[in-house]
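thought: user wants a sequence for this fold. calling inverse folding tool.
action: design(structure=
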């Protein structure tokens, strides 16, 4: 007997929120809980993507970290109704200090306006985050109170150590508590998400191909995608190139598609193969390549690379929609 498919924790949370939005159950504030740098905001972005795919109107704000290398140097503020990003917190003195960061007065005012506007226009409102400043009556405290008194579903991001105090101070009787770590490995894309993934891939003809050097450090270079068949990507290259030697030593590769203008990103992880196929070499040949291969498709240095994608992931920056795609199912 076939076992029923289990609902992932994040999809389970989504279903609870949809039931509240649809009026099938009473509204219960959702607390997305985790420690410092535990993935609370990343979980919020994944939940946001699922809600939008379910055609739920969402407002409020999320505050992702700004990184320099591995160091957090500040936070941005994403207004979820307008999909606009604004400065929010940094290391330079000025504004309201919280720990080693300083919150911008303009950023706090934008956050307050984002929540106030969303109360009449949306069904779910995010506040990122509710912590020490709010427990002292500052920061987003007033917005939290207005949100909890409204008829929309609140989603509050809360540090684990402050959960009990937040529940007590804001008199939250029956919260839905969701730990961010439950969602870290489960962002499987819906059919609409898979379509978004391929839309990003197909919009960017010059991705980066990443191979592994002998010292196991990755090496990347821009490539021109000359053909795609489902999860199979085709490139032309020099047989004598370093990338071919690296692929022959270790075929595991990543192909990165990055649109910095739209903040879109997609990655395909898979296996690379050096293909000797005169018929396909002829069909994919482009005359503009003769500077590299003067003898055309029969040039002995001209060869094709085929990448068989096994797994992909993506982020649509303007909406926060993200997910993981199983590409093995798309093998021709």
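)
observation: tool returned 332 residues.
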């Amino acid at each position: 007997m076939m076992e029923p498919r289990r609902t992932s924790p994040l999809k389970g949370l989504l279903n609870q929120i949809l039931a509240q939005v649809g009026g099938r159950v009473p509204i219960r504030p959702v607390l997305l809980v985790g420690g410092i740098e535990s993935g609370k905001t990343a979980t919020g972005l994944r939940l946001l993507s699922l809600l939008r795919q379910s055609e739920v109107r969402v407002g409020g704000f999320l505050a992702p970290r700004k990184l320099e290398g591995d160091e957090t140097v500040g936070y941005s503020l994403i207004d979820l109704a307008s999909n606009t990003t604004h400065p929010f917190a940094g290391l330079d003195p000025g504004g309201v200090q919280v720990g080693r960061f300083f919150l911008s007065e303009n950023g706090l005012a934008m956050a307050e306006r984002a929540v106030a506007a969303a109360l009449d226009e949306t069904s779910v409102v995010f506040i990122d985050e509710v912590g020490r400043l709010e427990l002292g009556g500052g920061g987003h405290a007033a917005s939290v109170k207005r949100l909890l008194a409204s008829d929309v579903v609140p989603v509050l991001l809360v540090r684990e150590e402050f959960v009990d105090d937040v529940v007590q101070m804001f008199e939250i009787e029956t919260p839905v508590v969701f730990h961010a770590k439950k969602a870290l490995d489960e962002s499987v894309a819906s059919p609409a998400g898979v379509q978004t993934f391929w839309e990003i891939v197909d919009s960017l003809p010059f991705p980066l191909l990443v191979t592994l050097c002998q010292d196991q450090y990755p090496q990347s270079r821009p490539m021109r995608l000359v053909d795609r068949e489902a999860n199979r990507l085709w490139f032309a290259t020099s047989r004598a190139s370093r990338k071919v030697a690296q692929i022959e030593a270790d075929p595991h590769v990543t192909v990165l598609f990055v649109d910095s203008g739209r903040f879109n990103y997609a990655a395909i992880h898979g296996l690379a193969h050096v293909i000797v196929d005169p018929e396909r070499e002829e069909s994919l040949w482009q005359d503009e390549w003769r500077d590299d291969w003067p003898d055309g498709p029969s040039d002995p240095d001209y060869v094709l690379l085929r990448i068989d994608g096994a797994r992909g992931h993506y982020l649509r920056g303007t909406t926060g929609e993200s997910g993981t795609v199983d590409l093995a199912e798309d093998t021709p």
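thought: summarizing for user.
answer: Here is the designed sequence. The chain has two domains: 26-185, 192-330.
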